[in-house]
Amino acid sequence: MHSADSHDFLRVTGARENNLKDVSVEVPKRRLTVFTGISGSGKSSLVFDTIAAESQRLINETYSAFVQGFMPTLARPEVDVLDGLTTAIIVNQERMGANVRSTVGTATDANAMLRILFSRLGQPQIGPPIAYSFNVPTRKASGSMTVDKGKGERISVRNVVYHGGMCPRCEGMGSVSDIDLTQLYDESKSLAEGAITVPGYKAGGWSVRYFTESGFLDPDKPITKYTKKELHDFLYKEPVKVKINNINLTYEGLVPQIQKSFLSKDVDTLQPHIREFVERAVAFTACPDCGGTRLNEAARSSKIAGKSIADVCAMQISDLAEWVRELDEPSAKPLLDALQETLDSFVEIGLGYLSLDRPSGTLSGGEAQRTKMIRHLGSPLTDVTYVFDEPTIGLHPHDVQRMNDLLVQLRDKGNTVLVVEHEPETIQIADHIIDLGPGAGSAGGEVVFEGTVEELRASGTLTGEHLDDRAAVKSVFRTSTERLEIRNANQHNLQDVDVDIPLGVLVVVTGVAGSGKSSLVQGSIPKDAGVVLVDQTEIRGSRRSNPATYTGMLDSIRKAFAKANDVKPGLFSPNSDGACPNCNGNGVIYTELGFMDTVATTCEVCEGKRFQAEVLEYELGGRNISEVFAMSVTEAEEFFAEGESRVPAAHAILERMYAVGLGYLSIGQPLTTLSGGERQRLKLAIHMAEKGGIYILDEPTSGLHLADVDHLLALLDQLVESGKSVIVIEHNQAVMAHADWIIDLGPGAGHDGGRVVFEGTPADLVADGSTLTGKHLAEYVGAA
């Protein structure tokens, strides 16, 4: 054998990242390896934070120091040896950016190809590809230019047009905002009295002094007494230079300030209190000039086969693929072939129901991950390591097989495919399986099994024992007398749907991805129906945030410590008075080294405990605040249950966290280190306390190990038994089989869906067998 052929394994020795305990494994190259284990067992720590992170770090180091200065810096993972690494391409579940200008078309280069196509074939011709871009405005310039040429200077007068396709009215956003001025200020008050009611504008603060000391407004005059000019200067004044406290600043009206700071971002990415203000004060409507297409009149006038670029971007991608296929233009054949391949990849991967003008920020985690896969499917690269994070999330059982075929296709091209997954159908196609455990958090971080699927079944590990689990359809169903009526629902692809959702029972809404489930449940149920929504949006928190701060339990813990020791509560927060002054309560010192890695070292003063030494002398029930932060949810729940350390408010939150399966989590663990499944269950624990009559859960089994699904089902039953109505959007067959009532949407996705194809009990759905969901559920329970 040639010595170059001996590198057939990716070797990891002594991995200690996060909860990993000196893990050493050999991963076969050019094979499909699936990493399994319960949530929090260390799968992502091994695959993403160790293997993929080191591969990317080493690639970044090949660039010059100048280039590295513009790139994210990655710290070297806690591992002794990594050998046999290849270039890693990470395809994860992170949302595709919240830029309001980003669409499915711009994120996948499909728009770029369409712009070239229209610039070559569109009639009338209006200019180069950039003339069809909604992100570029049309600019005009005129003037004289001195040219030093030949025998002397010559003055040339020119008029120049820089082409762009942006709609001038909405600036390429597709929507215009109408601001309710009554929500911005209290006209009965003066600025000095706190008239401005916008978040962040406090009387006496810099943002308000900006108005009161500008010289344009009287700070003590109620706004209702302003003249027309004063009101215009307050609300709409154009930017103008002013001097405040000998500092040169630019003054502009309140409305343009709000438009720049709040409305230029995706509403969903704003902090909760700001988002609540924007939703209350601002109404977004489709731009009347461009009709929501984002393009100017010239770009909309140029057409191919009777369709403008705005028309084709609004088409369902499966229909657009057919439209491109019918274009017979030999001059543009290479371009049409490339565009056709991209569009066919969308359909092949199960995203044919999207349109290219869909804002990328509105895609679910699963849709975003599959959209990122598009560019890799036709890639000529081989001997690359592809790393996937639960690629079957959000997929109907019908689509899981299609995803499996794509993973195998990548492997067969000579690539190493690493997949973190809980789905049994994907585990079964693996060439090699690495199972981590045995528990989660500090009880996990070890490799408990390596081998094939058949060996896993006989291994006795938690994953092996539950791999062939099959839930039986319930024989007794809860019945309901009340109904929530939805009539003529037509949001997105819904086709005037009429449906009655039973209340007081467990209702599961099913259907293939894109069939209209979220549109029906989240978009059509009245907001005043007492709804508590637990969706897939991310938890936003810094590296200072942890479960104790996010759930609010730290407030009651701080007060209990303060009361027991007769001191102020602020001492017991690492973000307040009690923080170690050396590390500012982080426990580690972050050293920025320019273009090199940021180095995190344990603080020498507090030894990583985050608090001042004198604060650690104060105890509650024999424990100091640092020791409490280090407790797991299970330990903390016992600690705060009784005795002198009894804190009922914290205990109630900890009980809910334990109930959703987060007993292993440390209450002081940074939120940035939690997995997707952990974040969603943490949100569920918080929402369980809300006084809503109807709970809507969007795929709560995301990221859940097979062994944890029964735990979740018991929790859903507990919610129903307590008098709640629970509506679950779900693809997991165990949840379907456990439902009291199923509403199945379809039959397909996009315009082929949007209709209710079945309503009834799971037993009736299995017996019916006419829908895709019915067929797969029948196979699952063994009735087929």
Report a brief summary of the structure.
With 784 residues, the protein is an alpha/beta fold.
What does this protein look like?
- It is a single chain.
- With about 775 residues, the chain is an alpha/beta fold.
- The chain is built from 28 helices and 27 strands.
- A six-stranded mixed beta sheet has the order 5-14-15-3-16-17, with helices on both faces. Strands 21-24-25-20-26-27 form a six-stranded mixed beta sheet, sandwiched between helices.
- The longest helix is centred in the N-terminal third of the chain and has 18 residues, at about 45-60.
- The mean pLDDT is about 90.
Shape: globular
Q: Radius of gyration in whole Å, from Cα?
A: 29 Å
- Based on DSSP secondary structure assignment, what is the total number of beta strands? 27
Number of helices: 28
Q: Mean pLDDT, nearest integer? A: 89
| Structural class assignment | alpha/beta
Low-confidence stretches: none
Strand content: 15-25%
Helix content: 25-40%
- Distance between the ends: 50 Å
Descriptive key words:
784 residues, alpha/beta, six-stranded mixed β-sheet
Lay out the secondary structure:
Blueprint: E1 9-15, E2 23-28, E3 32-36, H1 43-60, H2 65-68, E4 79-83, E5 88-91, H3 104-108, H4 110-121, E6 139-149, E7 152-162, E8 175-179, H5 206-212, H6 228-235, E9 240-244, E10 247-251, H7 254-261, H8 272-281, E11 282-286, H9 297-301, E12 303-304, E13 307-308, H10 309-314, H11 317-325, H12 333-348, H13 365-377, E14 385-389, H14 397-412, E15 416-420, H15 424-427, E16 432-437, E17 446-451, H16 453-457, H17 462-466, E18 483-489, E19 497-502, E20 506-510, H18 517-524, E21 531-534, H19 547-551, H20 553-565, E22 588-591, E23 599-602, H21 625-629, H22 633-639, H23 648-659, H24 676-687, E24 694-698, H25 706-721, E25 725-729, H26 733-738, E26 741-746, E27 755-760, H27 762-768, H28 772-781
Parallel strand pairs: 3-15, 3-16, 5-14, 14-15, 20-25, 20-26, 21-24, 24-25
Antiparallel strand pairs: 1-2, 1-4, 6-7, 8-11, 9-10, 12-13, 16-17, 18-19, 22-23, 26-27
Helix pairs in contact: 4-12, 11-12, 20-23, 22-23, 23-24, 27-28
